[in-house]
Design a protein that fits this description.
This protein has 381 residues and is mainly β. 0% of the residues lie in helices and 45% in strands. A hairpin with a 2-residue loop joins strand 12 and strand 13.
Length: 381
Amino acid sequence: MFRIVITAAVLMMGAPAHAAPKDELAAGQPTHVTWYARGGPKQQGRVEAVVGKKPKIRWSFKTGGAVNSSAALDAVHAYVGSDDGQVYALHRTTGERVWSVQTNAPVTASPVLVDGLVIVGSTDGHMYALTASTGALQWKVSTGDKIVAAATPLEVGGVPAVLMGGGDGWVQALRLKDGVPLWQYKTDSYIFGSAAIVSGTVVLGGCDGFVYVLKQDDGTLVRRVSIGPYVGSSVAVSGSRAFFGHFGNRVAGVDVSSGEFVWHTPDSGFPFLSSAALGKDTLFVGSRGRKLYALSQEDGHEVWHFEALARIDGSPVIFGDAVLFGAGDGRLYQLSQSDGALQWRMDLGAEITATPAAQQQWIVVGTHDGTVYGIETRTKL
């Protein structure tokens, strides 16, 4: 496997980034993280936002390609990739472009913000570290194949790092300051989901049909759990249990400490690419069968489901009593966690596969026609 570390000092004008609300952190997690793609190191899909029921589009920004990347937010900016190959920094409240950086292929991965850096992978096979305030390239690392999943911040022996998986099947912990690999582990197929970090271990699913548990500090294998079908989503972890949907048309709960299945839902007839969001006792996950499911974390039984007009490949996020997600019908939906009642929906006119980014009273999401939307949501407008 060949990789190159490159440093650069390309300076572009922009405003400094600011810290976002504090994420849920686990032991061994860097406290300088300002945005995780799934809300925290356990990939639980929980964010801090206002549960508003009167959303209004405040701005839109047109990129040159479909937007499959989920945005990262800080107090000033929204950072998002596009299939036009660029990573954009937009002003969060106006949508004005602050800077953009060109890669050599579509950027479908979600950026993460760590210690003033935007860390993002591209389908050109590189992981990029860009200065959040200016877009200056600090380093990039070449891998053997495309990167479509968000990196996961972690610490390796007390050293700040980011974890990435790619189409070459490698899982790598890269030193944050320069991208130097600290450890590597080879799986047997593509890695399309982000890793969860919990209790000194790395938990992730692979398209080889396994869920892996690795040691956080050196990447050695603790165990792998045979699933069978592809696991193309991020694995969400609560306690010792990992939750995920897969291409065998089912959702699973697995005890990662023992490697045993706790439960498996019946065959839904459609695969799951959406990553699960975890509430207190319930998980929420989208299906290519057009349904968003609310399932019991205890035994996997269906609590309720909501049916959109097209498949749901994007992942839901939860905040307060709300569940927020986009669908292939071009609509953004907000539901009540307790019973799935529709709180509001908004038609954005083109397919949504990106996970909405929500923080405070703002939602940022992109669509397949290349538009990024800034939506303000308050209880009173």
